[in-house]
Write a structure and sequence with these properties.
The protein has helices at 3-9, 14-22, 37-78. It starts with a helix and ends with a helix. It is rod-shaped. The protein has one domain (3-78). Helix content is 73%, strand content 0%. Residues 50-59 have a biased composition (Polar residues). Residues 1-48 form the Translation initiation factor IF-2 N-terminal domain.
Length: 79
Amino acid sequence: MKVHELAKENGFTASKFMEEIRKFGIDKKHHMNVLSSEEVDLIRKKLQKGVQNQNQNDSSKTENLNKNEEKLKETAVKR
């Protein structure tokens, strides 16, 4: 699979995707370079893990906002 194909599959521009996969230790110089099946598997796992971590962070932020809203309501009722 070529770099630009996997980039498109994951919603990246080729240049941003190459920056991202460099963080995983995969250094490709051109968007037309071919990725090995091992590299593709590694990239997919890392990207999926990043999405899962982002979703966990988002849900934690939502929970904190909900708790803060409840505290504000309680304070307003007491006054």
